[in-house]
Amino acid sequence: MKIIRASIIGFGSVGQGVAQVFLQKKEEIQKKGFDLKVVAVADSRSAAIDEKGLDLEKVLKSKKENGQVGTETLSGLEVIRNVEHEVVIETTPTDIETGGVGLDNMLTAFGKRMDVVTSNKGPLALKYGELAEVAQKNNAKFRFEATVGGAMPAINLIRDTLAGNSIISIEGILNGTCNYILTRMMEEHASYEQMLAESQELGIAETDPTYDVEGIDAACKLVILANYVFGMKATYHDVDVKGITSITPEALSLAQSEGYVIKQIGEVKDGFIQTSPRLVPESHPLAVGGTLNVVSVQTDLAGTVTSTGRGAGSIETASAILSDLISIYRED
Amino acid sequence: MRVSMDIELKDTPGQLLCALTPISELRGNLKSIVHHHEERTPRGTIPVQLVFEAEPDNLDAIIEKLKENGIGISRVDEKRLIEEGAVILIGHIVHTDIQDTIDRIDRTGYAEVVDISLSMPHINTTSSASLKICAVGIKELHDAISILKDVAEKKDLLVVEPIRAEFS
Fold first, then answer.
1. Are A269 and B91 inside 8 Å of each other by CB?
2. A221 is catalytic
3. Residue B168 pLDDT
4. Are A88 and A9 in contact (CB under 8 A)?
5. Is the CB of B119 less than 8 angstroms away from the CB of A279?
C-alpha cells in the first residue's frame, strides 16, 4: 500500500480535529488505497516529529496537558523545509491583512513540490492567483474545500459533481455565526447585541466577532469561490461588504409579515462579488436557520443546485480536509 | 403594462388570428387566452378573454388595429404597475425626510411606493420600514431599487433588498 507522509501545520481546533479524524478513520482511509502517516505536527510554539509516523493520541494529549505538541523547537515553516513528506495540511489561523504564516507555509511547500490541503482562508483571499500558479508550476496539488463552508460541499461540488456545467452565479449563506444571530433575533424578537452575547456565550461567536458580523469572513469565502470558479483575480478588497450589525428585530418582523426572512447572503455574479443582508422568501432553499451554511449554484445544464451543511466546527472542517486528501490520493 | 381584454369574434375561420396578429406585431406579449367557443353573445359572436403585456404607448394602436380587423372589443382593463417588490429600510428613516425618499421613487414615472409600514421603537433609536414598490416592468423595478439604494447611502440607511432570484 502506498504510504502518504503528511504534516499538520497549525494545531488549534482545526488541526486537532484533523488528528482526531485521522485516528477515527484510519481503516476507511486504508480502504481508499493509501496509508496516511503524520510525520510532523507543528503549533506556534513547538513541533513533534517522527519519520516513522507520530502517535497522534500522544500529540493530542501533549497539546491538551502542556499547551504544546512536542519538545522540538522547529517552526511550521522549518518543518516544511526540513522534514521529508508529501503533503502539508495547513491549518494555521486566518490572517486577512497579510496572509500570515499560512502564505509562507503554502508557497514553501509548493516550492518543494509538496501538495497542500488547507482550511486557511487568508492566503487564498489575498493571493489565490499566485498560489495556484506556483502550485501548478511545481506540479503540486492544491485543495481547499475546508476554506468555504466547512463540511458543506461547495468547491468540490462544482469541481467534481457539476463538472462540465458552466457556472452562471453562486449565492449563499457562508457564515454560521451571522446566520445564528439573525435566526435567534427573529425567534426571540431580541436585539442584535443580546443575540451576539448569547452566541458568544455558546462559543458560536468569537470574543472579537468583527470578522463574522461585519461580513469579512463571508467575503473571503466568496473571493475564493470567485477566483476558483470564475477565474477572477479578486482579493478580499474587491468585495462589496455590508454586515448584520445594524439589523433590528423590527426589520425582521416587518420582513416576516411580507413572507421573508433576512439572511446574510453572499453572491458572485457577472464579475461582481457582494455580501449583505438580503430578503429571502421563507420557503426558499436559502432560508436555512441556526448555524447552517448553504450555497446555491446556478448552472447551464443542471439548473440550480443547492448544498446545505455545517459551515464550522473542528470535526466538520476536518471532514472537508479528509475529503480533499482522499480525492488526491485515492486509488480508483 | 398588463392588459386584460374581452373581445368578440365572428364564428368564421381565421378570426382568432386576426385578433392576435395586431398584438404580436406591436410587441405585445400574450399571457393567457380563453376562447369560449361553446358560448355565444346576444350578437351571435364568440367571447374571448385575452391577457397580454404591452408597452403603454402601443395600446391605442393595438385597439385601433383590432377594430380595423373587425374584432369587437367589449372591455379593456389596464394595469400599469405589474411588478411588485418589497424592501426593508433600517436607519433614521423619518429624520432623514421619509417623504423625499418616497418621492424619489414616485418621480420616476415608472415606479411607485404603494405601501409602507414603519416601526419606531424609541425616539432616538433607528427605525425600520418595509416598502412595497410597484413598477411597470422588471427592469424598472430594479432601476427603482437602485435609486432607493443611492438615496439610502446618502442618508446612511441600510436597504435590505430581496435576493436576485426573486426578481428574475
1. no
2. yes
3. 47
4. yes
5. no
A114 and A186, same domain (yes or no): no
Q: Identify all chain B residues contacting A284, using CB atoms and an 8 Å cutoff.
A: 163, 165
* pLDDT at residue number A331: 76
Q: Could you tell me the pLDDT band of residue A312, with boundaries at 50, 70 and 90? A: confident
**Chain A with chain B: Cβ pairs closer than 8 A:** 71
Domain of residue A199 covers 167-310
Chain A's closest residue to B120, CA to CA, is: A250
Total tally of structural domains belonging to chain A: 2
Instruction: Give the whole-angstrom CA distance, residue A171 versus residue A275.
Output: 9
User: Is the interface score ipTM higher than 0.90?
Assistant: no
Nearest CA in chain B to A266: B163
From the candidates A63, A127, A141, A221, give the one annotated as an active-site residue: A221
Residues of A within the annotated binding site for NADPH?
121
Rounded to whole angstroms, the Cα distance separating B160 from A124 reads 29
Q: At A52, which CATH number?
A: 3.40.50.720
pTM listed for this prediction: 0.85
Domains, chain B, with CATH or none: 2-79 (3.30.70.260), 83-160 (3.30.70.260)
